[in-house]
Design goal:
The protein has four helices and four strands; from the N terminus they run αββααβαβ. With 144 residues, it is of the alpha+beta class. It has a domain at 19-73.
Amino acid sequence: MRQTSFDQMYDEHFYYFTARSVAEMARRHGLDLVDVERLAVHGGEVRYTLARAGARERTAAVGELLAEEEAAELTARHTLEGFRDRVLKARDDLVSLLRELRSEGKDVVGYGATAKSATVLNYCGIGPELIAYVTDTTPPNRAG
């Protein structure tokens, strides 16, 4: 949310949980959220540890993350609308920049055909009229 990272919202990355929502889900199933570990992957992820209710003490990290989420008002409508507005602005700014570069006769190309880049291109409606081509050096997966 803080970094407006919408490019990782694709395919297998379509669930986004707060510590608050994980704690509530766990409680409904006889479990406790007992630990959280922040990971730097994709701009920030959280690993959640659950245990049977009452089996383990909650770490301080859980309380800290819950307090941080509350302070950031992650479930407030204005927070979610603000994220939406930033995503829309990022899309509009990127498309405007690409159109300007093309109108100046410049060719724009892409390097790295990642899932994130595909998400951005698809969401922004960017095609060959704005980016001439995308290349990647990753060998194809020829499993099977």
